[in-house]
Design brief:
By secondary structure, this protein is an alpha/beta fold. It has a single domain, classed as NADP-dependent oxidoreductase domain (TIM Barrel, Alpha-Beta Barrel). Helix content is 38%, strand content 14%. The chain is built from 12 helices and 10 strands. The strands form 2 sheets. An 8-stranded parallel beta barrel has the order 3-4-5-6-7-8-9-10, surrounded by 5 helices. Strand 7, helix 6 and strand 8 form a beta-alpha-beta unit. The chain is globular. The protein starts with a strand and ends in a 13-residue tail after the last helix.
Length: 344
């Protein structure tokens, strides 16, 4: 397993991180992801640690806190061997203060997560979504207080737009407060919007990218392809997956299948290896319901694709960016080379 620096900090994390949204399976939505219990979670943690995957990502909103509880039980007695990342911001109840990232909510959420996880500190605490109501300075001061108290080591954000993240970075610098060291974002061969603004920002500001749903809700797992519908019992066949236009998906899976045959690896491993080679990407959050799925995903850690294979996957998944990025590329006014290939 390769360990990469969490940009903007001195912390190193594994390139593959085990996501635990499948732990618990409480509620209609998360039940479609998985229903892993404590025994199953402990086995998955064992397999992950054997491969050097020492970081585990969860959130208070995953199965209404049950994911955190199960993870806490699965790592019991080996806290010093793991890194825990969790998140807050998604609704945890019907009240007006049960959602968002106000100072009161952040502090209350950290205390609750620590109790569920059975630990006295969180390695990486992340704001799950941007709160347009709470002043950014309020969030920053709350996170600084928790850092000083030793309850969180570092903090990051998730699902922020470019200007949201840049505003937080600028205000943190202005007030002499710790900056976010990571951005957990949706990025895959089937979802390349991240490259238009968030990737250049991450490179410029030294913010590590942690990728969620790198297989686009199992659509790039190899279970789906041209003339190959998703199995009825798979997550890819439910509304707990993410929408990808059908023909675009098949163009990508065709290319994935061809490269997978060449390197004698699974399509999922090829899709993950492509991401691991992308600019700004520090770690990829992989999920698994079974040991076989986890072992297959973990095997992507040592897969290196050739420049030609990377280029073919780039071309198959290419999409015209949003304005003004398509205009900047078209007229060639960007003086520094873009961090991603440009196909005209």
């Amino acid at each position: 397993m390769e360990y990469r620096p969490l940009s903007g900090s001195g912390l190193f994390v594994p390139s593959l991180i085990l996501g635990t949204a499948t732990f618990g399976g409480s509620g209609d939505f998360f039940r479609k992801w998985g229903q892993t219990d404590v025994q199953g979670a402990t086995t998955l943690v064992d397999v992950a640690l054997e491969a050097g995957c020492t970081m585990f990502d969860t959130a208070d909103s995953y199965s209404a806190g049950l994911s955190e509880e199960i993870l806490g039980q699965a790592i019991k007695g080996r806290r010093d061997k793991v890194q825990i990342a969790t998140k807050t911001g998604i609704a945890m109840g019907p009240g007006p203060n049960d959602i968002g990232t106000s100072r009161a909510r952040i502090i209350r959420s950290v205390e609750a997560s620590l109790k569920r996880l059975g630990t006295d500190y969180i390695d990486l605490y992340q704001l799950h979504a941007f709160d347009a109501v709470t002043p950014v300075e309020e969030m920053l001061h709350a996170l600084d207080s928790l850092t000083r108290a030793g309850k969180i080591r570092y903090y990051g954000v998730s699902n922020y737009s470019g200007w949201h993240l840049m505003k937080m970075l600028a205000l943190a610098e202005k007030h002499g407060l710790p900056k976010p060291v990571s951005h957990q974002a949706y990025y895959s061969l089937a979802a390349r919007d991240f490259e238009w603004e968030l990737m250049p920002l991450a490179l410029d500001q030294k913010v590590a990218t942690l990728v969620w749903s790198p297989l686009s809700g199992a659509k790039l797992s190899g279970k789906i392809g041209r003339n190959k519908p998703a199995p009825a019992d798979s997550r890819a066949a439910t509304d707990a997956s993410w929408q990808v236009p059908e023909e675009r998906l098949y163009t990508i899976t065709d290319a994935l299948e061809q490269v997978a045959t060449e390197v004698e690896r699974s399509m999922a491993q090829v899709a993950l290896a492509w991401l691991l080679a992308r600019p700004s990407v520090t770690g990829i959050i992989i999920g698994a319901r079974t040991v076989d799925q986890l072992r297959d995903n973990l095997a992507a850690a040592d897969l290196k694709l050739s420049p030609d294979q990377m280029e073919r996957l780039d071309r198959a998944s290419d999409v015209q960016p949003a304005y003004p990025y398509w205009h900047q590329r078209r007229v060639g006014m960007v003086r520094n080379p873009p961090p991603v290939p440009v196909h005209r």
